[in-house]
Amino acid sequence: MPHADSPASFLDAPTGFRSWLLTHDHKRIGILYAIAITAFFFVGGAAAVLIRTELATPQGDVLTADGYNEAFTVHGVVMVWFFLIPSIPSVLGNILLPLMLGARDLAFPRLNLASWYLYALGGIFTIACLIAGGADTGWTFYTPFSTLFSNSNVLLVVVGVFIVGFSSILTGLNFIVTIHSLRAPGMHWFRMPLFAWTMYATSLVMILATPVLSMTLVLIGLERVFGVGIFDPSLGGDPLLFQHLFWFYSHPAVYIMVLPAMGVVSEIIPCFVRKRIFGYRFMIYSIMAIAIVGFFVWGHHMFVSGQSMYAGIVFSLLSFVVAIPSAIKVFNWTATLYKGSISFEAPMLYALGFVGLFLLGGLTGLFLAATALDVHLTDTYFVVAHFHYIMVGGAVMAYMGGIHFWWPKVTGRLYPEAWARFAAILMFFGFNFTFLPQFVLGFLGMPRRYHAYDPEFGLLNAFSSGGAAVLATAYLLPLGYLSWSLFYGARSPANPWAASGLEWQTSSPPPTHNFLETPRVDGGPYEYSPSQAEAEAEAEAEASA
Amino acid sequence: MSRAISPAEPFDDIEQQSGAATFGMWVFLATEVLFFGVLFAAYAYCRVQDPQGFVLASRHTDLLLGGIESVILLLSAAAAAWATALLRRDENRASANLLWGAAGLGALFMALHLYEYWKDYGEGLVPGLRFTYTGLHAQTVERFYALYYAMTLVHLLHLLIGIVLLAFYAREVRRQRIGAAYATPVMCVALYWDFVDMVWIFLFPMLYLLDRS
Amino acid sequence: MNRETLRAGRLPALMLLAQLVLLGFNLLSAHAGLGHLHTVFSIAIPVLMAGIVMIWAMHLRQRSGAVRLTALLGFAFWAVLAALTLADQLARVPVPPPW
Lengths: 545, 213, 99
Prior knowledge:
The complex is a heterotrimer of chains A (545), B (213) and C (99). By secondary structure, chain B is mostly helical. Helix content of chain B is 77%, strand content 2%.
């Protein structure tokens, strides 16, 4: 609670619209992002409602074929670039990274604000595309359809994604410099929380991969406007060149989406198991391995494209390799649970949900990494189910878990726990009812991106659409009770979860400059067990004696 | 003229700020390598597909103008390097003059290149706007020029930004608002200018210096 | 213009000289009818010129490990993009139609 001589919380001072829209405070910028991405989540969600409504019955009776193409394009573009990629880094990362490092802000606060405005500007172009009638190329913009044949508003959405790419790049740059330069005294690299490590790895991927997407989009624009023949086969160009350039970014992009989720889960699990994370160093090596090896596997999106068979073999092998560090992480989260004192608050439900659903999603990725299997499964619902398990069952649930875990810290309010647990469980069931049938549909041969399908697939599709209705309800619940808690929720103490981490050592919500005095760090993260901490202190004292 | 320089938020001291700003510029330049890199990769891909066509296409570029532009940019980069060395020795006037020189040479490069574009338009070598070449390997020649325009235009945009920054800091240095005490902004601009120089170091041989025998 | 000013210009002047010499070699190589050898030179010479810029103008050797790693990563990941993309193109075996 604020009292006479403590500084005002960052939410209360300064006041006024301008003080929010021109803020340099990373916490306020994180909240600006949260509002924006929530709005886009519901835009992408509306497209999903259209899609699942259409697919509830085999006939194409809700949308035209072109209209359906526009629906899945909007869904993909908005969910990938305007929700998932910014979600954890730009909301939770922005708010928490300086706090976790003991810093007063990110290294470049004005650049941070510029990143948000770039996001907003990119968003405006994308909404303009929607209003003008949408684009129908799919979020993957494959050539020559996107450059030559599509009659939809390709340029508008390409410009929107180009602009939002710079938001990503500048955020990544800011995080990298912050982590290198602004750690509190005593916090050396192997004392940073795993969330900070995932922000670092994610930022590396953002800065190395996103520029490639940006220029590739420029090339689409050039080809579409000037009719040059870089990707057009009738002019001697090669559509596979586009695919290589596009997937060089878009595969690492999925690691931009999942690494932060892994970081959130690595913060939540130790807290609700009252034990430090198992294998902290191996978690770090795995995080960095995923980020780096993730750049070598993009051709697994191109196995049937006409790519050389030898390239296919190399990409397939490397895709198996990249699963290994992820598996190490799953083992370590599980090992953390062993002999722990587990409680099932909402953040923990989301974190455990992540581990299980990410496991399923990851394992099915191995099916797709095998070229012989991929020949049959590519472009079917198996792929759709695979990536939704990771991106929705994984990343979105982790985002929800993080929002709940740090909600008291950021807002100073406690959310209603019963409602939150109910929503988490409903979300888990709704998600599985929606996407588990899609694995089967894929195996049975149902192709993706079709608005009408064979009646033999009808029952499973109806089931999936029913699940989607449950999932949609589950997403609306937090919107309700979290908003309610802002006005009527109980006030939160500084550390309601008795969690470890520098962010919990300042008030809830924190003051504008985060800490009254710069903290000094003496030990590692996850100091949950007193006997553990004592044993470690003894070992260090002996080592230095 | 010595004046205590206080760091900007959230830095604790000016050394920390300087280190962070410089590192930030290097990270930015790494992103630029990948940004331009797409065009270099696309160029390599298309050239391997039809090397003869590329050789043929490259002969229509103006070697004399391109060569002069190369020398101008190398001179400009040298001027910027001299300017930063002088700034660290508190020689603001000479440093500012050299920064103006670097900016001016950059502007000269731009003017010459724009003239090249105008000539190309006259010769019908601008894909999408006016392309009239119908000889051997016509499709490849058009593809070469598409890449030529993409690469040189993106380079020119970066050059323009660099010219503006050099001119701005030339003014700041001349008015003693930046000096040896905190020269980091000028050092960062010089790093950026060196990068722009490096891009052209690769572009020139790729576009103008295919086999000319 | 005093002696100190000129001394500060020594390193930039030497750099410029080296760059101009290398540029000259490249120009000669293009006109010498070397065929594929010229292709090798036209890549190697810019690499040397870029090396001069990075070492003597951007002072890469005096920079921190983080900066040098950053520079390396930029080029290394570009190399991954170019190498694997080109390798695919070069390794394609044309499959003739069955008729």
